[in-house]
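Box S1 | Example of a co-folding query
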Amino acid sequence: MENMLKIAIQKSGRLSEDSINLLQKCGIKINTSLNRLKTEAENFPLEIYFLRDDDIPKYVEDGVADIGIVGENVLFEKNKNVKKALNLGFGKCRLSIALPKDKQYKSIKDLQGLKIATTYTTILSNFLKENKVKAEIHEISGSVEIAPSIGLADAICDLVSSGSTLLSNGLKEVEVVLKSQAVIIQHANLTKAKRVLLEKLFFRINALQTAKNNKYILLNAPNKKLEKICSILPGMKSPTILPLAKKDWSSIHSVINEDEFWDIIEKLKDEGAQGILVVPIEKMII
Ligand code: PRT
Ligand code: ZN
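Box S1 (continued) | Returned holo structure for phosphoribosyl ATP
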């Protein structure tokens, strides 16, 4: 049992599905059909604990779990002795301060003396201190967004993603306190054997993340344009060129980055590329 990595993920909530998907895309087979507290992967030495997200940092600090997936908002709020190991790119949101929409707001100084309802007391109090604002923090455990309308507070500090919850409660976002996404956290002192397993898992996650940011591109071009077109296409080493049955034409294959995608496509078209195909990549190891 010793050489088994233990991961804590959210049992049911916004991060649950993405966390399980991530493990599955890493080729790890998990039986999710039963409503259990823990399960063992079939083909990787991994034990999965399903917990409330708030409890995950503590479990990882104590070493009950070796690693965990939580939002940075939970990581910073709980402030446990754990290491952040990897950004996962899902569960994106921001922790923001919001006021009733008809309230005047010019600068952060306008928060002075207000009563702010939140479940994020640690993060909020650090933020107010850093900005030298004195305000009263009113801790509540849920339905934060209704606090101003029932007269419980003047403002709120809560998670926002689309902004529609704020809008439907007559609130406006005035300060972003923290930008958050799901991350992997790890126990401060993992054994060598566990670190080896963790590296193996991270290698797979990296391959997925790299693949997601890149696209495989295939196109046809007249041979006289090859040099110019190859200079536009970066490729992992250099583009692959294959002759076409049609005389003086070739097919070019390469990998391009999502960020420069449209730029590159436009340049390729201008240089006479035809039949451009763009294909998603499932995994990519550089
Ligand atoms: O039961 P458990 O304690 O495990 O779950 P939970 O209810 O505490 O958490 P859950 O499942 O709601 O969220 C888990 C994590 O998802 C959070 O810690 C964040 O890291 C992340 N996340 C991303 C969000 C949101 N987006 C989000 N929009 N968490 C909550 N919200 C809520 C927000 O609190 C507000 O009520 O959604 C509402 C706002 O959404 P919009 O789209 O209307 O702006
Ligand atoms: Zn929670």
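Residues 10, 13-15, 52-54, 71, 73-74, 91, 93, 158-165, 180 surround phosphoribosyl ATP (ligand 1) (CB under 6 Å). The helical segments are 16-25, 56-62, 72-78, 121-130, 164-168, 192-212, 226-232, 261-270.
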